[in-house]
DNA sequence: TAGATTGTTAATCGATTAACAATC
DNA sequence: TAGATTGTTAATCGATTAACAATC
């Protein structure tokens, strides 16, 4: 693996390629070209080849890529050959939706538990995942060696959840609360702001209409 | 408004600034500097000023920005002074979560209806929003002049939902199904792939560990 | 005037794309 | 050899950042 910095957009695209390859593999196709992957993923062929080139040579010139092999390589690159333990804090609609989200379950993510402060939710089970008291969060992260924490609480609690994550030795945080979290540089943090997506669309529509 | 192309990232940041300004406005603060907005939004002060500069001059040199005024300006830029009608197709966990999502309701988005093919869901009401038969989708979009359609169906149905959206004259689509949709160039399309976010994190953790 | 902070320019940095040599 | 497609380079494009003139 080469050592220059790899764009985050490249990683996001690799994830998209892998999902498409998974579909293609199920269809029994053996060989695929960068052009076909590009079409199936909504990017350019040059993009596909460049993205892959960061990590090695996976194809055969004049021929293409072996679907199965390339798929396995990409999963390995993304760390998806490993099993990842995840907890979700905040058992609202979004939290439970994520707990049951097929896109997470199809990969090797294991959702260890859900957590909430609301006593009335304790013990509830969603698709085999139990809701536990927020007070047990730190203990369980340590015991189970949880890798990733997902925050789906209201904004007001997000930072304190993040603090507990950090103290418990979690490695990465996926935050759905629309706020800026302070975490040490060695913790991977990714914010997903659902409302931003709608607002980019309204901007685009509105600017068209103004013309 | 100047006419050179505005980066999409700028729009996404404006949305974040507006949320922070909303908070600051509630606290009763009147003046704010680019540095403070930057800190509250997790970006650099230069970024804040550059982003705003695409749209005009909203501050006073040596002084800063009037919180209320700037907030109103940004909302206007994003098209959030208007009311937007939204439908959600696919009443799974994610669909209902989005229907009830505060981040959407706090803005001026009006969720007109939810739609599903499953008869047993027809007539159910989530926070005042009724689930209607998928067959009525086209009719209602036209009748109600719906602006934005959200897709939270399984991947296999996503394209056919998009086709109906397009035929019904919807202006923008927010797609949560992990697939590439084909829509005419004049329809605004935005894909949100929740699993990609987790996979960017696993890549980052995995590459650290390999070092 | 001195201090502060914006608006804008120019420099830097990084990502995308086109093109082609390598090679099956 | 001719055709095809990768891997890689170099050119282009665009976004970020630093720096500073403008100005309150």
TrEMBL record, chains A, B:
Keywords: Cytoplasm, DNA-binding, NAD, Repressor, Transcription, Transcription regulation. Modulates transcription in response to changes in cellular NADH/NAD(+) redox state. InterPro entries: CoA-bd, NAD(P)-bd_dom_sf, Rex_actinobacterial-type, Rex_DNA-bd_C_dom, Tscrpt_rep_Rex, WH-like_DNA-bd_sf, WH_DNA-bd_sf. GO terms for cellular component: cytoplasm. Residues 79-180 form the CoA-binding domain. The keyword Transcription applies. Homodimer. The keyword Kinase does not apply. One of its GO terms (molecular function) is DNA binding. GO terms for biological process: negative regulation of DNA-templated transcription; response to redox state. This is Redox-sensing transcriptional repressor Rex. Pfam families: CoA_binding, Put_DNA-bind_N. Its main location: cytoplasm. Residues 16-55 bind DNA. It is found in: Cytoplasm. NAD(+) binds at residues 90-95. Belongs to the transcriptional regulatory Rex family.
């Amino acid at each position: 693996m080469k050592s220059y910095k790899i764009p985050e957009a490249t990683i996001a695209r690799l994830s998209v390629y892998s999902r498409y390859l998974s579909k293609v593999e199920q269809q029994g196709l053996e060989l695929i070209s960068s052009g076909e992957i590009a079409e199936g993923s909504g990017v350019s062929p040059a993009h596909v080849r460049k993205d892959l080139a960061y990590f090695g040579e996976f194809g055969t010139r004049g021929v293409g890529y072996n679907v199965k092999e390339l798929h396995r390589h990409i999963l390995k690159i993304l760390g998806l050959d490993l099993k990842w333990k995840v907890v979700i804090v905040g058992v609202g609609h979004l939290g439970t939706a994520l707990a049951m989200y097929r896109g997470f379950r199809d990969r090797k993510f294991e959702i260890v538990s859900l957590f909430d402060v609301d006593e009335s939710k304790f013990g509830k089970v969603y698709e085999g995942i139990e809701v536990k008291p927020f007070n047990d969060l730190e203990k369980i992260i340590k015991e189970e060696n949880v890798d990733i924490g997902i925050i789906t609480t209201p904004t007001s609690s997000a930072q304190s959840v993040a603090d507990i994550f950090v103290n418990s030795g979690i490695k990465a945080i996926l935050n759905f609360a629309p706020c800026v979290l302070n975490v040490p540089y060695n913790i991977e943090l990714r914010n997903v702001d659902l409302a931003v997506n709608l607002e980019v669309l309204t901007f685009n529509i509105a600017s068209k209409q103004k013309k």
